[in-house]
Every structure is written in structure tokens, then in C-alpha cells.
Amino acid sequence: MRLLQLHELSQLYDLNQSIAQDPATQAFLNPRSEAYLGQFIHTATGFTIGAYDQEQLIGYRAVHYTSQHLEHVPCPLVAPKYYPKTAHFAGVGVAPNYRRQGIAQQMISIALYRLCHQGFRYVTVRVRPIHEQSIDLFTSFGFQIVYLKKDMEPVKECFFLLKELTPDQPKSFIGQAHFHLSVL
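^ thats the sequence. predicted structure below, dont judge the formating
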């Protein structure tokens, strides 16, 4: 696993398109444009962790440095002064043949580790209630369901999950996934 670079945007786009077109997941994922995905590779706005099999991109976890959606939630999840220190897990995908192998868990561990070291205080993620396995995965990392938003386009409802990051947590993320820190 390693951080994606801008020159790999087309690989990310192709993976995202193939996942969104998969009949088993088409109802759950929206194919994204290259411009949309590019904002998560550009280091000023976020980062994307790529999982590889040899040189083939098989999974990604996108992180955006601002949680703009927090302003649109009626009850505040975090104080506005912490918005600059709040990141958002914006997108994830694992190729169908590589699912259920712990890849998503490793990408979450790496992302949380990076965010802790970059001084972020909170991480948010939106998950549809029907994605029970995703909710279980995030809660295993200490995320808490803090809000249920109804009538969000293009879905009827989704949970907002929140995790507060503390300085001593990076050590716990290392234990949850085996990865090479030197590449990140």
C-alpha cells in the first residue's frame, strides 16, 4: 500500500468505474469523474491510499482534509473551530476479487495513522444504514454513530460516524494493520 500520485489518477478512475459498474454494487456506489477523484490525490486537499497487487491498483481509500458537510448537519458534530482539523473519509473501493481480505481495514489504519501525525483532531465518514459490515468495521476503530441524516441525495438516509483522534492513538493503528511506514 502506498499513497497515490497525480499521474495515477487514470488508474483510480478506472478502478472506481469498474466497481460502480459491478452489478453487485452498482446500487451502492456512484461512478465519479476524474476531476472529483483528483481532489483526493492533490496533497493540498487530501490523500488517497492505494492497495496494489503487483502494479495493479486493487483498492483505494480517499481522505479529504475538510468536512464541509458538517456545516449542513442540524446538530453540530464538532465545534466550528475544529473544522480545519477535521478530515473526512470520502471514498473507498476494493475490486470484487480482493474483498474480504482485510484490505479496507489496512487502508483505514494507514489513513488514521497519517491523520494523527498530521495533527487532525476528528475524522468523519458517512455510511448508509444498510451497509452493516462497513458500520461494524468503522466502529471497530472507535468511530461512533453520531447522527442519522434523512433525505440526502441520492440516498434516503445515511449515518454520520465520528472519531476523535488523540496523540497516543497512532500506536494502536500500527497493531491493527501490518504496513510499511516508510512508503507513507
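The mean pLDDT is 78.
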